[in-house]
Specification:
The complex is a heterotrimer.
Chain A (H helix, E strand, L loop, with lengths): L7 H21 L3 H26 L3 H31 L13
Helix pairs in contact in A: 1-2, 2-3
Chain B lengths: L6 H19 L6 H24 L6 E7 L9 E6 L1 H24 L6 H20 L3 H19 L6 H32 L4 H11 L5 H17 L8 H4 L5 H10 L4 H8 L1 H4 L3 H24 L3 H21 L3 H28 L12 H4 L1 H15 L5 H15 L4 H27 L13 H16 L21 H23 L6 H5 L1 H11 L4 H20 L4 H20 L6 H21 L5
Antiparallel strand pairs in B: 1-2
Helix pairs in contact in B: 1-2, 1-4, 2-3, 2-4, 3-4, 3-10, 3-15, 3-20, 4-5, 5-6, 6-8, 8-11, 8-13, 10-15, 13-14, 13-19, 13-23, 14-15, 14-18, 14-19, 15-17, 15-18, 15-20, 17-19, 17-20, 18-19, 18-21, 19-21
Chain C lengths: L1 H19 L6 H24 L18 E8 L4 E7 L1 H20 L8 H20 L3 H22 L4 H34 L6 H4 L6 H18 L8 H8 L2 H26 L1 H27 L4 H22 L2 H32 L10 H4 L1 H14 L6 H16 L1 H25 L15 H19 L2 H19 L1 H4 L6
Antiparallel strand pairs in C: 1-2
Helix pairs in contact in C: 1-2, 1-4, 2-3, 2-4, 3-4, 3-10, 3-13, 3-19, 4-5, 4-10, 5-6, 6-8, 6-9, 8-10, 8-11, 9-10, 9-12, 10-11, 10-12, 10-13, 11-12, 11-17, 12-13, 12-16, 12-17, 13-15, 13-16, 13-18, 13-19, 15-17, 15-18, 16-17, 16-18
């Protein structure tokens, strides 16, 4: 099959909505793990946009970008979870607002 | 002789330097006799040199230029001397009377810890005064002028351990400084207008450029008068002299009677060619002289400190000299300067002898009956007071008489000035003999501690002789001053002038010796008590100056001492700190606020690129 | 090359002094003293052997050939920035003053410094090097460089070895001078770029930038940039507030150098840069500057009178005296300028001596509060006599250098503005007031402190005698100094009245 059956705009809209949900989640959530999950959602939304574009233009670049983003996300989550463990140890909570020592 | 002119001020200067440095170099204290020899000897040598100069005959003026002090463009004052009759008279007084006072001091100050320092400063003073009178230009004269002022500060505050002495010294210096500032402005004006500060040159240039009655010479002369008034303790700057009596008595004799305070008279006489171009200024001089004379005479009448009586007397007599100068009787003014130097130094040294011998008693009402106990001093006071009161045939009589005649003959208001001067003469006679009768007659209230030695007695005797016959000296100022009219007023003027002092003597006798009259009923009146208090504090001048000058200055200094300008810079610091406070709130440490601002920024950027970028 | 040598000797000497502390803890001060003497005698000796200098010929600001010495080597050719040094009569006097007072400063702090002696002497020498550079640099960017260089070691001197309020004072000193220096930098860069736009060439050389044509408004702002930088240093009211704190908190050597030399760089800058570079703007501004000067004279004196801290009183007296210099510079005639130069030299000596005495008092009494002093003459007669000498010099006694200076300034100012001269002359009275108060509170009066106090020793008396002699010579025979400064002043006056300058009235 050539091109997309679903119009590009719809997919991009979904991607935007997902991005917005992720962003809102990032802003609103206080638990670090949920913030990380929201970050994941945002990353995936961006990846979806890439895939859609790739499908639209009929090129493999979109898929490759998707794989890149996925690996970046994985690496970032690994580091992030390591930091979460440290935060948990020091601040004895997973509340983002408790880690506010670096101020002034 | 001309080549050795520079030695005359140099010898006392060298002696001063030696006396300041030598005690530092020797391990143990120098013997006081050595110090006395150096200190007195230098002035003695200067006196001998002056004598040689005077006897050498002339031709006058004798001039000597040592070097050019500074040369900037057209301004080239030199360190140069100019000797004419007037200078000779002054030099003779300074070195002659000065020498006698130095001899007196050698016994008076014996035993003082700072013997060397005393003679060093006294010699430095003599040197500065000589430079003042020998200077051929006003800038060098100003050097001498300030020099004597500083030496006066050193010597009035000689016994610095008492803060009051320091205060008196500072007062003397600062009040005269006010006059000096006016004089400096006068010098600036004269140079700007006439292009030179050379005294003879000024006379020539002024005559060529200015007419009598012009504004410029008036302003210049008033400024010079300001300086003279400060140094000579005339209205309105006379408040420092009575307090300056805190210094050792020989200092008062030399500086505050014979020499420094007459510097103002010398200045006006020296620049008479300028003053002749400003008749208004001359009238001001005369009026200041008369007013000061009367004010001081009233104050002298009610004082009880022997030195303060003599101090007010000095102010009063210098007022006479100013009066003489103001009516154009230049030679008479200088003549009175000379006779005054003799009898006032005599009186001061006499009072010094009393103070020395009565273990530092100053109050005349605590003395008494000294006639038999201190005969030398008694006769000194008789001769001195007679001359001061201008009793007939004393030196003071001749000089004061000349002044009174010249004043009477003055075209503008001469008769009024003469009358005022007569009142002053009456008061002079009363207060001088009040002093004599209270101190030397009657019951002895304080015992005599010691008798004066030869070092005190000889100068006193010599000065007695000078006070008696000094009136016969003829001062060689004929070539210096313009001739005075040869008019003679009616004989009654001279008779009255001679009679008034005798009247004063009689009044003093009746009040203080014979006690036929009594002041008690008068003194009980509250009005007279207030008047007495008023005169005792010299017409409230001190209080006035304190109120309008001294206290505001202190308040201003205190108010500003926290540096209000700094508040401006402090305000900049404060603004900085506030900004710091504000901005540091954006770094709150809360990650979520950072996220929120990032999101906000992102939205802004997107909005800008969608809607703002349209123009590009 | 001589000029470069004298600066480098001091820089290297500083390093040596710092290093020598490891050998012996008294070594740094000896090394520093030797270095300064070597510099002084080397300089004087070379001058002497150069023989026929154009010392008496007018030194025109635009002709480096008429100057005594001139050296230039390229640094950043793309912008026409060279290492350009030149000396005329004025800089000669200032260099000599710097070196002599440098030696005095080292002598003043002989026993004062207890920690990091090597570093202290190094900072002292580097400050002197910076000052020499300021006096000799003719490339404006090089001048700015040296301006900053002289600041930083002085900051350290105050901040590390100062007294109880040293942190505040050092910071205040640094910020004031630095901020005003930045204004000067902006002016320098703008001036150079204007020169570039009119002549097509980049140059920061003083000789090239003289006579640059520009609009009146621009000239006014650029002139202000320079003016503020120098007037903060001078210091003139109302930019003087850094001075009392800096002088009071600095160690003795720091105060000596600050008051004796650093303040003169401000005056030097005005004479050398502000007035020749912007003649009409300066002329238009003159009445404001004269007003500031006269006010500063009185203000400094009144504030001095109200102080209880010995050093602070002397610091305010410096404000008063430098007001005279500002007056002399802006009266801009031969008499006034000669007076200003003379005041720079004479005030250097008299105020350095007073600070040395203040330092000596603080070392012995551990206080600067005059309410705790009194009657010190009895215990320390030599110090009392010396203090009396310098106090009397400070109030302008004729026969000493300060009088010659003040009188010449007043005489010159009188030709320009009579009313202001009358106001400034009041400074004579107010000067007497605070000077005598200083004497009264510290050395006269009844004794307050009873502990056995040491009088001046031979080293201190030697230093003081040198300065006393200098002031007496300046007071009685000032002609040599006047002769050295005269050609420079003539050149400057000729230049500012010349056609080259009149042409500036036309806007390009």
């Amino acid at each position: 099959m050539e091109g997309l059956d679903i119009p590009l705009n719809h997919i991009l809209l979904v991607a935007c909505l997902l991005f917005a949900i992720g962003m809102l989640g990032l802003m609103i959530r206080r638990n670090i793990i949920f913030m990380l999950m929201s970050l994941e959602v945002m990353l995936n939304a961006a990846a979806l946009a890439f895939v859609a574009a790739g499908a639209h233009w009929g090129q493999a670049d979109g898929q490759i970008m998707f794989m890149l983003i996925l690996s970046v996300a994985a690496a970032e989550v690994a580091v992030g979870l390591g930091l979460v463990l440290q935060v948990q140890k020091r601040f004895k909570s997973l509340d983002m607002d408790d880690a506010n020592r670096m101020r002034g | 002789m001309t080549e050795l002119l520079w030695l005359i001020p140099l010898l006392p200067l060298l002696s001063a330097i030696v006396l300041m440095v030598l005690p530092q170099l020797s391990v143990k204290a120098l013997p006081q006799s050595l110090i006395a020899v150096i200190g007195v000897g230098s002035v003695g040598s200067a006196m001998l040199l002056t004598l040689t100069l005077a006897l050498s005959g002339g031709p006058y003026p004798i001039e000597q230029t040592l070097w050019t002090w500074m040369a900037v463009g057209g301004f080239t004052p030199g360190v140069a001397f100019y000797i004419d009759g007037l200078t000779l008279v002054m030099m003779s007084i300074i070195t002659g009377v000065g020498f006698l006072i130095h001899v007196f001091s050698s016994e008076f100050m014996l035993g003082d810890h700072s013997y060397a320092r005393y003679f060093a400063f006294l010699n430095l003073f003599v040197s500065a005064m000589l430079i003042l009178v020998m200077a051929d230009n006003l800038l060098l004269l100003f050097l001498g002028w300030e020099g004597v002022g500083v030496c006066s500060y050193f010597l009035v505050g000689f016994w610095y351990q008492q803060p009051d002495n320091g205060r008196a010294a500072r007062k003397a210096f600062i009040v005269t400084r006010i006059g000096d500032t006016a004089m400096a402005l006068g010098l600036l004006l004269l140079f700007s207008e006439l292009g030179t500060l050379n005294i003879q040159g000024l006379g020539v240039a002024a005559a060529g450029q200015w007419q009598a009655g012009d504004t410029m010479p008036l302003i210049a002369c008033l400024l010079l008068l300001g300086g003279a008034v400060g140094k000579s303790a005339q209205l309105p700057l006379q408040t420092w002299l009575p307090d300056a009596m805190a210094g050792p008595t020989p200092v008062s004799a030399l500086i505050h009677a014979a020499t420094m305070v007459t510097a103002g008279v010398y200045l006006i006489a020296r620049t008479h060619e300028l003053f002749l171009l400003a008749p208004t200024a001359m009238m001001v001089v005369a009026l200041i002289g008369l007013a000061t004379s009367l004010m001081a005479a009233c104050s002298a009448l009610v004082q009880h400190d022997i030195k303060r009586i003599l101090a007010y007397s000095t102010i009063s007599q210098i007022g006479y000299m100013f009066l003489a100068l103001g009516v154009g009787a230049w030679a008479s003014g200088i003549f009175h300067l000379m006779t005054h130097a003799f009898f006032k130094a005599l009186l001061f040294l006499g009072s010094g002898a009393i103070i020395h011998c009565l273990h530092h008693e100053h109050n005349i009402f605590k003395m008494g009956g000294l006639r038999s106990r201190l005969p030398v001093v008694f006769w000194s006071f008789i001769f001195g007071s007679a001359a001061l009161a201008a009793l007939p045939l004393t030196s003071g009589f001749f000089s004061k008489d000349q002044i009174l005649v010249q004043v009477f003959l003055h075209p503008q208001g001469g008769a009024w000035l003469w009358f005022g001067a007569l009142v002053g003469a009456l008061l002079t006679a009363i207060y001088s003999f009040r002093l004599v009768f209270v101190v030397f007659f009657g019951v002895a209230n304080t015992e005599v501690d010691k008798k004066p030695g030869w070092a005190m007695a000889v100068p006193l005797s010599l000065l007695c002789m000078l006070a008696a016959v000094g009136g016969l000296f003829a001062i060689p100022v004929d070539n210096v001053f313009p001739a005075v009219s040869e008019h003679h007023p009616s004989i009654w003027v001279e008779v009255v002038s001679a009679a008034v002092p005798l009247l004063g003597l009689s009044i003093a006798y009746l009040l203080f010796l014979g006690k036929q009259w009594s002041l008690q009923p008068l003194l009980r009146r509250p009005l007279s008590q207030r008047l007495r208090y008023f005169w005792l504090n010299h017409w409230g001048l001190d209080a006035l100056y304190d109120l309008i000058l001294v206290r505001p200055y202190y308040s201003l200094a205190n108010a500003l001492s926290s540096e209000p300008i700094d508040r401006l810079y402090g305000a900049i610091v404060w603004v900085n700190q506030q900004l710091h406070g504000l901005l540091s709130r954006t770094q709150g440490g809360r990650v979520r606020s950072y996220i929120a601002s990032m999101v906000l920024g992102l939205l802004l950027l997107i909005a800008l690129s969608l809607y703002g970028g349209g123009e590009m | 090359m001589l000029m470069l040598h004298i600066i480098v000797i001091l820089l290297v000497g500083g390093l040596l002094a710092m290093a020598s502390q490891k050998i012996h803890q008294n070594a740094p001060r000896w090394i520093a003293l030797t270095v300064v003497f070597v510099d002084l005698f080397y300089f004087a000796g070379q001058l002497w052997s150069m023989g026929d200098l154009n010392l008496w010929q007018a030194q025109l600001p635009t002709e480096p050939g008429t100057w005594l010495m001139h050296y230039s080597s390229p640094w950043i050719p793309a912008f026409g920035i060279n290492i350009e040094l030149a000396m005329d009569g004025l800089s000669l006097l200032m260099v000599l003053l710097t070196l002599v007072l440098g030696a005095v400063a080292i002598s003043a702090s002989w026993t004062d410094i207890k920690i990091h002696r090597g570093f202290f002497e190094a900072n002292l020498l580097w400050t002197l090097a910076g000052v020499l550079g300021v006096f000799l640099a003719m490339d404006l960017l090089l001048f700015f460089l040296f301006w900053e260089v002289m600041l930083i070691p002085m900051y350290f001197m105050i901040a590390i070895w100062g007294h109880e309020g040293r942190a505040y004072a050092a910071m205040k000193f640094f910020i004031f001078t630095q901020a005003s220096g930045l204004l000067m930098l902006v002016s320098i860069l703008t001036l150079a770029s204007i020169h570039h736009s009119t002549s097509g060439q980049w140059s920061f050389s003083y000789f090239d930038l003289l006579g640059t044509a520009m609009e009146e408004q621009t000239a006014h702002w650029l002139m202000l940039g320079f003016f503020i930088a120098f007037v903060v240093k001078l210091p003139a009211f109302p930019f003087h507030t850094w001075l009392p704190d800096a002088h009071t908190q600095a160690p003795t050597a720091g105060s000596v150098i600050l008051a004796g030399i650093l303040l003169k760089t401000g005056a030097y800058g005005l004479i050398r840069f502000t007035l020749p570079l912007f003649p009409e703007a300066s002329h238009a501004f003159a009445s404001t500057a004269i007003w500031l000067g006269a006010f500063g004279v009185i203000y400094g004196a009144v504030l001095a009178f109200g102080q209880t801290d010995f050093k602070r009183l002397v610091a305010y007296s410096s404000v008063s005296h430098m007001g005279f210099v500002l007056l002399g510079v802006y009266a801009w005639n031969a008499l006034a300028l000669q007076g200003a130069v003379m005041q720079m030299v004479a005030h250097g000596f008299s105020t350095a001596a007073l600070f040395m005495i203040a330092g000596a008092l603080q070392e012995r009494l551990h206080t600067r509060d005059m309410r705790k002093m009194g009657g010190l003459w009895q215990q320390m007669p030599r110090m009392g006599a010396v203090a009396m000498f310098f106090i009397v010099a400070s109030l302008g006694l004729p026969g000493l250098g300060n009088f010659v200076a003040e009188f010449l300034i007043l005489l010159g100012l009188f030709q320009a503005d009579r009313a202001m001269t009358a106001l400034a002359a009041l400074g004579l009275i107010t000067g007497a007031a605070y000077s005598l108060l200083l004497m009264q509170r510290s050395f006269h009066g009844s004794v307050q402190q009873h502990a056995g106090l040491l009088d001046f020793g031979p080293r201190e008396m030697l230093t003081m005698s040198v300065m006393m002699l200098a002031l007496i010579v300046l007071g009685v025979y000032p002609q040599p100094v006047l002769n050295i400064a005269a050609p420079v002043i003539d050149g400057l006056l000729v230049f500012s009245a010349s056609d080259a300058v009149v042409a500036l009235e036309v806007t390009p």
